[in-house]
Amino acid sequence: MNRTHPRHRTPAVLAAALAALLVTATGCSSKAAGDGGSEAADGVRNGPGVTAKTLRLGALTDLTGPYATLGKSIVQAQQMWADETNAAGGVCGRKVEIVVKDHGYDVQKAVTAYADLAPDVVALPQVIGSPVVAALLDDIERDHLLTFPQAWAASLLGHDSVQVIGTTYDLDMIAAVDFLTRTRGLAKGDAVGHVYFEGDYGANALQGSTWAAGRAGLKIVPQKIKATDTDLTAQVSALRKAGVKAVLISAGPAQTASLVGVAASRGLRVPVVSSAPGFAPQLMKTPAAPALAALLDVVSAAPAVSSDLPGVRAMVAAYGKKYPDSPVDSGVLSGYNAARLLGADLKKACAAGSLAREDVVKAHRSQKSADTGLGSPQDFSDVSRPAASSTYVLKPDAKAVGALVGVEDAHRAPGVTEYLAEHS
């Protein structure tokens, strides 16, 4: 679900709090029923998760595992949207309810939770984790259950009921290479390191960086790591020996902090670019903060929550009022945006006379320029392509809301159109 100084004291300190555990699994079962809808008194066809008075949505999230902070932000942001929507009369005259299931980033727990949840909801505005979504793909497609992953691997494209919002990891790394060549002085023949998680996330990111590097005449020096690898001293040594002029990272926040902190302490003070999942605002309260502020940029399909976009400012103000003790981070923006996009789909389906699952999916796929005012417009009409191809460049700033500020507004990096044509 998009697409990190003096050496910090111990990488394990960050690892304990922020390490992202990726697991893989295949196979899934579900007791979800087919649509089999009936018509309500208002003439709108119902289906699973829909009655004459209520409309139930589901969330498969992580509230107790490595992405618990992200999960909490997304859950609260989507509940805020539901409360706002209900105060304004609901969707199609129905009160919105969101049923939350915590899988703790455990694929088998997620499979069980899906089986319990799926029969009684019309859509899933939140599923955290590429491996979780991958394990559920067959069931989601069979159940026609419109699903918005909090994961951005290109392997999730091509499924009618699954919508990756924003860019995919490969497009983010194409944008990262473009940013480095335009602003950091990289030239033909230079070597660029790429530290990446094993699995779909890292593989998709490496595909993008390798393609962009070839186009720019650069050489990628790959360093594959496991999600449990939180001391990147060995990788930094290898990259320094290779003479890299910059580093890309496609991993979790703990790995980004270790990479940047160790690199700075070992004299490898080169620019580092991460995709959005590799940064968390909590990093700016760790010993790695000075190096992150000096060396890191973040490529993201979404703007910073410190953005001056009116929609983002209104969301930040509302969230701060509703949840005054919770930080406003990128998860808030991601979750709220997904909920608003789904709300638009449901309203369109209602206007067409049916809230049955397959008709909600149909309404979603008819949206060619969905714009919530929270970032770039989204085109959902082609299942084989990302919903957006433009990215922002952000930079850590401990004083900013969400600890990120904008460096470059959304734009499509050179080569993205060519790449998409080649990989369609």
Please characterize this protein's 3D structure.
The structure is a single chain. With 424 residues, the chain is of the alpha/beta class. It folds into two domains: 35-167 and 310-365, Response regulator (Rossmann fold, 3-Layer(aba) Sandwich); 169-300 and 390-422, Response regulator (Rossmann fold), CATH 3.40.50. 39% of the residues lie in helices and 16% in strands. It contains 13 helices and eleven strands. It has helices spanning 11-18, 68-87, 107-117, 130-143, 169-183, 200-216, 233-242, 253-265, 289-295, 310-322, 330-351, 357-365, 416-422, and strands at 54-61, 95-102, 123-128, 146-150, 191-197, 219-225, 246-250, 272-275, 296-300, 391-396, 404-411. The strands form two sheets. Strands 6-5-7-8-9-10-11 form a seven-stranded mixed β-sheet, with helices on both faces. A four-stranded parallel β-sheet has the order 2-1-3-4, sandwiched between helices. Helix 5 (169-183) runs parallel beside helix 6 (200-216), helix 7 packs across helix 8 and helix 11 (330-351) crosses helix 12. It is globular, with a radius of gyration of 21 Å. It starts with 10 loop residues before the first helix and ends with a helix.
